[in-house]
Amino acid sequence: MTEAAAFLNVAQSLSGKRWQARPCDERQAMALTQSRGLPEVVGRVLASRGVTEESCETFLNPTLKALLPDPSRFRDMDPAAERIARAIRDGEPVAVFGDYDVDGATSAALLRRFFRSLGADVRVYVPDRIKEGYGPNAAAMLRLKGEGVRLVVTVDCGVSAFAALEAAADAGLEVVVLDHHAAEPRLPPAVALVNPNRLDEDGAYRTLCAAGVTFITIVAVNRVLRQSGFYRDRAEPNLMEWLDLVALGTVCDVVPLTGLNRALVAQGLKVMARRANPGLAALSDVAGVKEKPDAYHAGYVLGPRVNAGGRVGASDLGARLLSTDDPMEAMELAQRLEAHNAERRTVEQAVLDEALERVAAEGGRETDLVFVAGQGWHPGVIGIVAARLKERYSRPACVVALEQGADGTVIGKASGRSVRGVDLGAAVIAARQEGLLIGGGGHRMAAGFTVAGDKLEPLRDFLHGRISEQMAAAPLVPTLELDGALSVGGANVGLVTMLDKLGPYGTGNAEPRFAVADARVVRADVVGANHVRCILQGNDGARLKAIAFRALDSDMGQALLTGRGTPFHLAGVLRIDRWNGSEGVQLLIDDAAPARSA
């Protein structure tokens, strides 16, 4: 097969995508297969992710001992650690100003658990998403100052909060910023600003999320305390026992699971499996997680529930859940988050339906950007809706929730999600610098902003122009990358068990996706609200369970439901299916194509 050939000759699938083989160094794949005694398909999976014979051991067994850097390598880390350590030694009132997403909640909970382990505590402040918006605001900072707080540590926010931090400085309130979002040449005033994405950093750790930055900062503070003799008459905390929070934040912020991030998640999932955090244990029980947690559970089961409080409930519920040691409080908070998550799904679907109608009505006004705005849309779900639109149209998407104030002024709060190769955060920062935004920022794959209603159209044109420039440099073709083709019988428990050892999977280490070739649909039905469940049969007579989530109203879903006996090529990921003490395999279908067109 040449590079130009479509995988299994699928040039256009039922979702309109071209299938292609994931790029792979064939010689490296063969070397890994032979040196490690691996099946050929597993060797290919490793090689396609850049794993070599030399790096294979570190990849398969990532450790913090090998990968955690000296915290002092980061700009401002030493003054940040010294200031926080001084606050601990002197018993100063400290507040943590967090974000309302999972990365912010886990970061705030990390700091609170660290302080509590030393007999201290912090005031956790999470702004109301609707009333206050994202990040530090002057009113909140001054309120904390009025409460007697001497030091504020911002987590997952702060790098673009110029006005708020200037107000804090003027009031004599000291601030340490721990952030990872894109920075500008000018930084807001602070005692210290630790951010691997500062322009004066070397970029080696630019993919860290806030939870990762916070953990490294805690390592630095702990070292300062140790060197100052703080632990002469008290036990030193075991920082590793909080890696479950770091893993959750890292997975949910969709940063690449490579290098240090991979080690943090791999080790953190082991800690999560011990169920030592009452909040995570309660949330797992409420969500029905019975098996050993992996990155999928963190990102798609636990994460959305932690997020739900910030989206449609109380913004601080996630941080409170993750930092409590009271099992009864943990269960009460977990149940509240479960209820909020159900509400979030309903609200999300309503906004998504309306957004899709608006995109359809515009008839493809833009080729490189999906940009929709609506009055009365809930700001708490627009990020998820943007992600859905990005997935559907394979291009960056921005969703704006418009609200009219008492004075008649229309303000839009927006969230955007990007695709590989397009730096949405940089485009939003450029728009702010052009005076088109009230505020905004982000990183390559996600951004948020606030815009005045009369600037909506100029902003749309500006972002489209910036994004089109990036798309022109690397034209975007909707594709689905596959790691290989399997028969129905080849999708077996042994293969999936071996592939599980290559995790954790996520951005930067994509879960292997295979095409199950020439599979006939024996049975198909609808489960849940809009999922399509199938039984597949191969030419060898072997059978395989499969499910396509949220597929009922799609061309693929309808084809599967009406295609009994029809041969398909089905692309997706394989998972162990445990039921009543037995193990099988299930295919989670991402895409499909009629085999007769191959």
TrEMBL record:
DHHA1 domain segment(s): 372-468
Domain RecJ OB positions: 482-591
Keyword list, A-Z: Exonuclease, Hydrolase, Nuclease
Keyword Hydrolase tagged: yes
A Pfam family matched in the record: RecJ_OB
GO molecular function: exonuclease activity
Sequence intervals crossing the membrane: none
InterPro entries, per the entry: DDH_dom, DHH_sf, DHHA1_dom, RecJ, RecJ_OB, SSDNA_exonuclease_RecJ
Domain DDH: 94-250
Family, similarity comment: Belongs to the RecJ family.
Protein name: Single-stranded-DNA-specific exonuclease RecJ
Organism listed in the record: Azospirillum picis
